[in-house]
Amino acid sequence: MKIAVAIDGSENALRAAKHAITLCKYLPDAHLEIIYVSDYNKAKDERLLSQSPESLTLKREKKVHPVLELAKDVGVKTKLTMLKGNPSQEIIKYVNSEEIDQLVIGSRGLNTFQEMVLGSVSHKVMKHVNCPITIVK
Whole-prediction pTM value? Predict the structure, then answer.
């Protein structure tokens, strides 16, 4: 079984990742795919603020590393997929093309300004992916 979790470094994403790891731990032959999307708009800002491409990469690694460590600690096999572009569009396109059995996503990400009841990314993804989705509060 292929379970994917979309993360962005937020607390909600970490909770979603913990839930996905728990699912994988109890499902035989399940493995976890961690999806991280570098938002083009944010990437431009990050690149301007960062001193080098290496520091930009390091910032992204800091967002992904805790999830990889949590999965490794409990023996869950993982695959990391780094995408670039609009987060909701890239997650939808990837999940629908890769035969993901279950997607787990946080209810809200790092951008709380645009959100009301449900995060804009999770709301768009929920409406357009072809697999079951779990939204973690």
Answer: 0.86
